[in-house]
Amino acid sequence: MSPDVRISNTGRWTLAGVVVVLALVFAIWPRGGDESGTRDHSDLTTGASGTTAVERAPGDTDEALAAPRAAAGLQQCPTPAPGAVAAGPLAGIELGCLADGSRVDVGAALAGKPALVNLWAYWCGPCAKELPALDDYARRAGGAVTVLTAHEDPKEGNALAALTEYGVHLPGVQDGAGRIATAVGAPKVLPVSVLIRADGSVAAVLPQPFDSADEIAAAVSEHLGVAT
Questions:
Q1: Who contacts 162 (Cβ-Cβ below 8 Å, separation ≥6)?
Q2: How far apart are the first and last CA of the chain?
């Protein structure tokens, strides 16, 4: 074998080694971190770099959020149906209600009635388009299906400002640590709609944006068997 051939082979092995190293670096690189609104329908940043996730940012105290809450005018969080018992993966998950900061056991609040829990964040472009459609659907569904939003970023004040801008008044909870997403096994993308049966079990986890109330109604009919 000539020296030229040996050098050529060595070069190929070196190139292959570089490719492997680059692939490993890409695989472990923290995802997210840009809050410019360009992370639409992409990986969540909460805890993505190994930091401890928090429900809401330290500066978002009840006092600091009083005015944004008043401006948003959100509906109060749901309450359990009479005699209903919390069950399923959301039972025992206690979060703050966006409307007033009160603590809500999500599983208990949704017990006894079919529900749609929408996971979103203030920086998510598809969420901004979907939330008004979800608001329309909630009015259309009336009491047949409980609709609850869950804000998946610690900055609760930004969530309230976004909802005020969108003109959306749906009830919601603050879940910057992503506890609901973890409980139902949702992928790390936004938006996600989680369809919950009356018994608390999960009927479907839908990691997709909806464009209209009709699309949402079709998904609810398919997975929950509820015509709205």
A1: 122, 128
A2: 76
Stated pTM of the model: 0.79
pLDDT in tens, 112-128: 999 999 999 999 999 99
3-state secondary structure the chain: CCHHHHHHHHHHHHHHHHHHHHHHHHHHCCCCCCCCCCCCCCCCCCCCCCCCCCCCCCCCCHHHHHHHHHHHCCCCCCCCCCCCCCCCCCCCCEEEECCCCCEEEHHHHHCCCCEEEEEECCCCHHHHHHHHHHHHHHHHHCCCCEEEEEECCCCHHHHHHHHHHHCCCCCEEECCCCHHHHHHCCCCCCCEEEEECCCCCEEEEECCCCCCHHHHHHHHHHHHCCCC
Q: What is the pLDDT of residues 196-216, one digit of tens each?
A: 999 999 999 999 999 999 999
Place of tokens 């609104």: 37
pLDDT in tens, 51-79: 468 999 999 999 999 999 999 999 999 98
pLDDT range class, residue 157, cuts 50, 70, 90 = very high
CA 86 to chain centre: 21
Residue 118 CA to residue 149 CA, distance in Å, equals 5
> Tokens representing 106?
């999500």
d(CA 105, CA 79): 9
Q: Which residues are CB-neighbours of 122 under 8 A, at least 6 positions away?
A: 151, 153, 155, 158, 159, 161, 162
